[in-house]
Task: inverse folding
């Protein structure tokens, strides 16, 4: 199978280029396996990967124009030739490795941690199964970055717009019956940038490898904000 | 070349559950703590833990920590230290509550309490009815815990060095650890971090085997760093093979699947675990189930065209339970095995999963060099916690749900110890420049130009050797050959060369450093295994089929220098309760 | 324009104005297809009806608000140099206000003449 892989090593290259590789496809081969095979052929090729089962979120790449996880994408589902590029919109460090620091910064900016102000009980804070169900589809995020780097609004304003990943997490805590910082969280999301750069383009929903729905979460935040302002 | 240097009160290498829980204690105490991780923290392998964390909360059935302790001692095949086990089982309860308070989205029972599921090796009343002790967030408990701990560290403003590789500990002539040499992966530049205390929390080393549930990053870096700093590794022959990896691929299918009511069948559709463990059946201890599966396949009752696996049947649980309690497993099965467990059984086979051994520590997280007379000498400035450490609470076999518990309890304990140590505000010791030079030499070694064997080639060869010679069943012949082969590979390391000498994000260089680590650990595993002439827990020898408490109720201790083995007695005396004396282990 | 309000308020105004625009357009289309004024005088008389006048003024206000939020979004997305953005925003603001005033004048004159 033919692969064209984006290559750029700042130590030796003046400009990026696409390099061709031939990989023999084995049964059940995932894209990550193919990339590892390419690394066997060419030690200098760099990409991030770790768990190999879609939970660590290291190996998000752009393939034939779509963001996806290498380890959960069977090569048999890909159209040949396979064009593998780094995630769009992020500065390239080397080959498929991009600088995700702005993405992480936006995550940190939404205060992604539980804030419980009442004195803590000796045992667990009680939560009904129904309330717990509200966190399904939110907490599973693996921070791979497929969504935010597919979001045009994040491309244009990565320094100011939180992006779908961080906003999904903002809603994860707003939706948690144990969290007691709703007002502060909503206030912090005000303004034209952090939340409202989302124009419901829904690339995030299309590319999330865990089938999560940031657009829906963003809608819920807006709804809650409106309710609180009335 | 001038070496960049930074100073911190505490250095933590590794940002999985143990490292992050320790960091959280330190950051909350306003200490200057640096967390070095070779991957962004939420990529650490804690993220892949599925089933849950054990604590006798008694939310489902009656339970208490003493029963939990009994199960753990029995599960360890009596090799676990009972003082540490008591400590862990008692601490489990406040630890899980603290996690919940920190935000972990545990699944819930109707009364609003944390959901607990049944797991292997759990009993009520010292070997009675099945207990339900494993606190779960669906089948993504590790993910939920790791993310929560990272989030809390964001709140506490912990200082992270993301994508820095721990190269070598700096040890002065008196044996104290002064920090570590690290490598910034993005720039390829070394950074010396001086610290009053250093905590190793680098996780496991499953990458020594070819088929493993472990991630690419699980290369035992901390263990190997300790070895090279003169610290031994303890009980390395005890490597857990998880019974249910996806056949041929190794991805994990949690024990929680059997806890929810799934069971194993062979090609005749027989529920074979009934023969091996009449009472606990599919929820027997992991070593028991793994051996049963291998035996079924060896005796020709395997499934599939090559008769090389068995089947895990789940569909009878119904769509609802599977969707609610096992959504991640369903996803993985579909992707990697091509089956929907709600319709078809999952093909499974044991996969290398967890190392019970590691850097010897006391129950407070101090790294100790054990002597054969039972005394222990603390290595000043060095702590270890998590899978890389051996407290030892898992002994010869770890129970499911006890690994998340181990990393959390002992990560926290180590954090508290470091706080205590730093209370008196000790000075930074003078840096030992000779030791720094030696550490830097480990990096410059890979700058040798010229042709040679490739890292990849040797890594592949080594992992195959380990799989063939240190797998589930171990005989003297097989392992002697293994020792010889690993020694030969260690020699060959000298001839390995890096073709790519560039600096920026050179993953080949990182893999070269990891390979050195893997081979050092591989040697510890095969040598310790060869010498232990009994069958205990995960260490199963066809040539010595029985457990031999008279001669072998002791920990193996491997030193890198001279490939020396030593032994240390098991601590059979708990902290407050009576000893659980060794008994035949039946499930 | 207070920074605090310009997220939620702009978003809400855009949606409320859209609802009005939608309803008004349906009404207008219906009116034009079944009951269209046939002469210039009929048109003037129709526009001079106070209900219609208010409806139309509201329509143009909603249209301009809607367009303003939309244009503002586009400029925030794409025009990053602050001077260029402020310049363009001012240009559009002046243009929109002028449009609004001109329309108000048209409708006002229609009612006076009637």
Result:
């Amino acid at each position: 199978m033919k692969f064209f892989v984006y290559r750029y090593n700042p130590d030796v290259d003046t400009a990026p280029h696409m390099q061709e590789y031939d990989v023999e496809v084995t049964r059940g081969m995932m894209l990550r396996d193919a990339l590892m095979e390419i690394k066997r052929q060419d030690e200098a090729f760099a990409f991030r990967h770790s768990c190999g089962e879609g939970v660590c979120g290291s190996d998000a790449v752009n393939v034939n124009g779509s963001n996806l996880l290498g380890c959960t994408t069977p090569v048999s589902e890909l159209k040949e030739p396979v064009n593998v590029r780094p995630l769009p919109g992020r500065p390239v460090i080397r080959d498929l490795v991009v600088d995700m620091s702005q993405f992480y910064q936006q995550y940190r900016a939404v205060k992604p941690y539980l804030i419980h102000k009442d004195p803590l009980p000796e045992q667990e804070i009680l939560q009904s199964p129904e309330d717990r169900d509200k966190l399904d589809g939110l907490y599973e995020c693996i921070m791979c970055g497929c969504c935010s780097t597919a979001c045009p609004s994040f491309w244009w304003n990565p320094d100011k717009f939180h992006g779908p990943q961080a906003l999904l997490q903002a809603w994860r805590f707003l939706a948690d019956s144990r969290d007691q910082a709703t007002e502060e969280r909503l206030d912090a999301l005000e303004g034209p940038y952090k939340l409202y750069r989302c124009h419901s383009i829904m690339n995030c929903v299309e590319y999330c490898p865990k089938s999560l729905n940031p657009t829906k979460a963003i809608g819920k935040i807006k709804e809650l904000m409106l309710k609180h302002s009335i | 070349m001038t070496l960049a240097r930074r100073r911190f009160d505490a250095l933590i290498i590794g940002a999985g559950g143990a490292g992050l829980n320790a960091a959280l204690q330190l950051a909350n105490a306003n200490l200057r703590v640096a967390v070095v991780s070779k991957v962004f923290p939420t990529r650490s392998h804690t993220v892949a833990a599925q089933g849950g964390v054990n604590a006798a909360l008694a939310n489902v059935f009656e339970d208490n920590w003493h029963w939990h302790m009994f199960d753990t001692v029995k599960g360890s095949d009596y090799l676990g230290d009972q003082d540490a086990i008591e400590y862990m089982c008692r601490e489990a309860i406040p630890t899980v509550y603290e996690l919940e308070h920190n935000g972990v989205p545990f699944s819930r029972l109707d009364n609003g309490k944390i959901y607990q599921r049944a797991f292997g090796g759990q009993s009520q009343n010292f070997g009675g009815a099945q207990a339900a002790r494993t606190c779960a967030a669906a089948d993504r408990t590790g993910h939920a815990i790791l993310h929560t701990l990272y989030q809390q560290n964001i709140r506490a403003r912990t200082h992270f060095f993301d994508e820095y590789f721990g190269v070598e500990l700096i040890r002065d002539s008196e044996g104290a650890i002064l920090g570590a040499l690290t490598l910034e992966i993005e720039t390829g530049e070394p950074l010396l971090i001086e610290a009053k205390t250093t905590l190793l929390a680098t996780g496991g080393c499953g990458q020594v085997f070819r088929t493993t549930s472990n991630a690419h990053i699980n290369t035992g870096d901390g263990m190997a760093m300790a070895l090279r700093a003169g610290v031994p590794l303890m009980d390395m022959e005890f490597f857990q093979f998880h019974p249910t990896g996806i056949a041929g691929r190794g991805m994990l299918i949690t024990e929680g699947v059997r806890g929810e009511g799934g069971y194993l069948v062979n090609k005749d559709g027989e529920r074979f675990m009934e023969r091996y463990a009449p009472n606990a059946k599919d929820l027997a201890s992991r070593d028991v189930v793994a051996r049963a599966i291998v035996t079924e396949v060896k005796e020709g009752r395997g499934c599939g065209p090559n008769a090389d696996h068995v089947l895990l049947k789940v569909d009878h649980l119904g769509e609802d339970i599977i969707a609610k309690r096992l959504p991640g497993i369903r996803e993985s099965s579909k992707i990697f095995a091509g089956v929907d467990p709600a319709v078809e059984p999952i093909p499974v086979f044991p996969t290398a999963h967890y190392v019970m051994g590691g850097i010897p520590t006391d129950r407070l997280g101090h790294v100790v060099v054990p002597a054969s007379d039972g005394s222990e000498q603390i290595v000043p400035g060095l702590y270890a916690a998590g899978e890389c450490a051996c407290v030892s609470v898992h002994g010869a076999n770890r129970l499911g749900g006890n690994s998340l518990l181990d990393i959390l309890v002992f990560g926290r304990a180590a954090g508290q110890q470091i706080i205590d140590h730093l209370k008196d505000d000790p000075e930074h010791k003078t840096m030992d420049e000779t030791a720094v030079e030696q550490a830097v030499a480990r990096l410059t070694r890979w700058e040798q130009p010229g042709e040679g064997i490739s890292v990849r080639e040797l890594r592949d060869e080594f992992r195959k050797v380990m799989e063939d010679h240190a797998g589930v069943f171990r005989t003297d012949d097989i392992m002697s050959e293994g020792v010889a082969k690993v020694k030969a590979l260690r020699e060959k390391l000298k001839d390995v060369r890096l073709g790519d000498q560039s600096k920026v994000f050179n993953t080949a260089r990182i893999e070269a450093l990891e390979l050195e680590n893997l081979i050092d650990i591989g040697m510890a595993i095969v040598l310790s295994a060869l010498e232990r002439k009994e069958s205990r827990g995960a260490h199963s020898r066809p040539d010595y089929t029985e457990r031999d408490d008279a001669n072998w109720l002791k920990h193996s201790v491997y030193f890198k220098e001279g490939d020396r083995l030593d032994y240390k007695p098991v601590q059979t005396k708990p902290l407050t309760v009576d000893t659980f004396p060794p008994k035949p282990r039946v499930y | 324009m207070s920074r605090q309000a310009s997220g939620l308020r702009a978003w809400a105004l855009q949606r409320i104005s859209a609802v009005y625009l939608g309803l008004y357009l349906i009404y207008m289309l219906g009116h034009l297809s079944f009951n269209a004024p046939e002469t210039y005088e009929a048109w003037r008389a129709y526009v001079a009806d106070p209900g219609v006048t208010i409806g139309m003024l509201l329509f143009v206000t909603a249209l301009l608000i809607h367009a303003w939020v939309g244009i503002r979004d586009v400029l925030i997305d794409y025009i990053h140099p602050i001077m260029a953005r402020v310049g363009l925003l001012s240009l559009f603001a002046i243009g929109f206000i002028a449009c609004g005033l001109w329309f108000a004048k048209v409708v006002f004159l229609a009612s006076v003449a009637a």
Remarks:
- The longest helix of chain B spans residues 507-531.
- Chain B has a mean pLDDT of 95.
